[in-house]
Amino acid sequence: MTLSLLDRPVDWGPADLVDLDRYPILNLDTGAGAALVAEVRARMAETVLCALPGFLKVSVVPRLAAETEALVPLAYRGPAEASPYFFNYGSGLESLPADHPRRRKTPRIMSQVAYDLIPETALIRRLYEWEPLAVFLSRALDVPRLYRCADRFQALNLSVMGEGGCQQWHFDTNESNITLLLQAAEAGGEFEYVPLIRSEEDENYEAVTRVLDGDASRVVRLAQEPGMLVLFRGRRSLHRVAPCRGKRRRLQSVLAFNSRPGVLGSHESNLLHYGPRVALFPRPQPASRAAE
Ligand SMILES: [Fe+2]
Questions:
Q1: 229 burial via Cβ count (<10 Å: 0-12, 13-18, 19+)
Q2: CATH code (residue 243)
Q3: Centre of ligand 1 from the C-alpha of residue 32, in Å
């Protein structure tokens, strides 16, 4: 099925992928475009997540999913478990009690295709590199400008989860996270989050511990559908992907943008998440550091 779909060439550009009738992102200054920006901003001001269902046209989603399926063999498995603060690579943790959330690890069963392994012709990459998307997201997130992440591995990722696949409870280090689901699991695989569980001043370890212990009373669930664009502020909101069930893989693209140009990830993080091949590349001197 996958191969026959990809056998048929298409001449779609990025603008052909987005449902511009529903999300008129090419004209944000007046009418429906301005209303869309205002609506997303209002939503992001009142909560930490804004979902735009049907951002991709229904007719293009199967092809983006098929292209991603074809890249699955290039996905790297990455760490099998991690703590909510997973970019703290173990330093100084010995002094904390064994049940401290910084020492608690939960399963991470997923693999990722790194940006440099996604062909330039792949539709999801063409969409990611399309300037009007960055402009729309910057307006929606109310920042002066967004730049695509400069990291050769992290900029755009395809996250792959099979049966039992999941992502551990964690916080992001970046302020905002943009995802676009391309294929849903047969069941499970919901995005779960606890809005603003911590602040810049208070880590609120007690509440984090309760969530890790299974308390779902403050957990919000988002049932994503393929083609849905999600804007999420995950720096202070604990979140995870619940276990996937069924044969069909959950395939999601993760689009990294920064408010500064030239942002790179850390070498250590890239080694962990994209594998030993990372060491084969020259270690770049970052103009600015991404979220580790
Ligand atoms: Fe995250």
A1: buried
A2: 2.60.120.620
A3: 30
Distance 240 CA to ligand 1 centre (A): 7
* Ligand 1 centroid to residue 176 C-alpha, Å: 9
Distance between CA atoms of residues 209 and 102, nearest Å? 10
pLDDT at 204 over 60: yes
In the reported structure, the alpha carbon of residue 179 is separated from the centroid of ligand 1 by a whole-number distance in angstroms of 10
pTM of the model: 0.94
Backbone angles phi, psi at 194, to 5 degrees: -120, 105
**Domain of 34, in residue numbers:** 2-289
The tens digit of pLDDT for each residue in 12-32 reads 999 999 999 999 999 999 999
Domains in the chain, number: 1
Task: Answer whether 242's CB lies under 8 Å from 153's CB.
Answer: no
Ligand 1 mean position, distance from CA 22 (Å): 27
6 Cα: distance to centroid of ligand 1 (angstroms): 31
Quote the pLDDT of residue 90. Answer: 57
- The pLDDT tens digits of the residues spanning 250-286 come to 999 999 999 999 999 989 889 999 999 999 998 877 5
